[in-house]
Amino acid sequence: MTGTLVGYARCSTDEQDLTAQRDALHELGVTDDRLYLDHGLTGTTRARPGLDQALAAVRAGDTLVVPKLDRLARSVPDARAIGDDLAARGIALSLGGSVYDPSDPMGKMFFNILATFAEFEVDLLRMRTREGMAVARAKGRLKGRAPKLSTRQQRELARMHATGDYTIADLAELFTVSRPTIYRALERVRVATGG
């Protein structure tokens, strides 16, 4: 690897830790002042501040270092776009210490296979999530969001609205909720009372 080493690491959720990725980048020679991070952003989200900063920091002759390709991109088109952009700018891409060479047919094929697997993992995760939600819904365990107002608050809100003394905006302000929440609460009370 030549020029300046610029590192990039990412984790998808706020609960995840970047320590292992940081350690891997340090072992590959990336210093803290050249390390860019995204925390709580998925690889399918292209607008990532840390990635944008890393891509802006690298210059011709530098190397962008990522621990694994799936940290950089989670779709084949996105990975190819980033790889092609770096190659056009004369910037090397190191994936866990192996430098990707877009002019080498084997390197290009290997890069595309890694990108395909990264995209496949995302697709599998989505499919499993949908299946899990369908099972939970069928068992009655997936009910959606709980109402913002309790049943008692909804009944009181409906009683106040029925007097004609309060507008929807007044009720929204009194109960510190949005107007759509007031409409939903009134509808729930109407359905519950058969009115």
Principal-axes geometry comes out as elongated
The helix-strand sequence is: EHEHEHHEEHHHH
If you average the pLDDT, what whole number results?
89
Helix content: 40-55%
**Total of domains:** 2
How many individual β-strands?
A: 5
* Sheet/helix structural class: alpha/beta
Instruction: Kindly report the spatial arrangement of strands forming the biggest sheet.
Output: 2-1-3-4-5
Number of helices: 8
Termini separation comes to: 74 Å
Residue windows where pLDDT falls under 50 for at least 5 positions? none
CATH-derived topology of the largest domain: Rossmann fold
List the helices and strands and how they pair.
Layout: E1 5-11, H1 19-27, E2 35-39, H2 49-57, E3 63-66, H3 69-72, H4 76-88, E4 92-95, E5 98-100, H5 105-138, H6 151-163, H7 168-174, H8 179-193
Parallel strand pairs: 1-2, 1-3, 3-4
Antiparallel strand pairs: 4-5
What report would you give on this structure?
- With 195 residues, this protein is an alpha/beta fold.
- It folds into two domains: 5-121, 3-Layer(aba) Sandwich (Rossmann fold), CATH 3.40.50.1390; 151-193.
- Helices cover 53% and strands 12% of the residues.
- It contains eight helices and five strands.
- It has helices at 19-27, 49-57, 69-72, 76-88, 105-138, 151-163, 168-174, 179-193, and strands at residues 5-11, 35-39, 63-66, 92-95, 98-100.
- The protein has a five-stranded mixed β-sheet, with helices on both faces.
- α1 links the parallel β1 and β2.
- α4 runs antiparallel to α5 and α6 crosses α8.
- The longest helix is centred in the middle third of the chain and has 34 residues, at 105-138.
- The termini are far apart.
- 25% of the residues are buried.
- The model has no long low-confidence stretch (mean pLDDT 89).
